Please model this.
Amino acid sequence: MMGFGMIGGMFLFWIILIGLAVLAVRGLFQPNQSDHGSFKTEPLSARQILEQRYARGEINQEQYQLMLKDLQQ
Model:
C-alpha cells in the first residue's frame, strides 16, 4: 500500500509539472489577453496606417506625401 501512494504521488507531481510547462509555453507564444476582450480598441484610420508605414520605413517621404495628399481629397 505504501508503494502505491509513492507512485501515485510521483505521477501527480509529473502531471502538475507538465501542466505548468504547457501553460508557460502557451503564455510565451500567445498574445497578451489579460483583459479577455473587455477593452476594445478602435480600428486604425487610413492616415494612422500611413503614418505607421512611413515610420517603419516601408515607404519613403515622397510616397508618404503622395498618399497623404490622396487621402485628403
Remarks:
- The helical segments are 2-29, 46-56, 61-72.
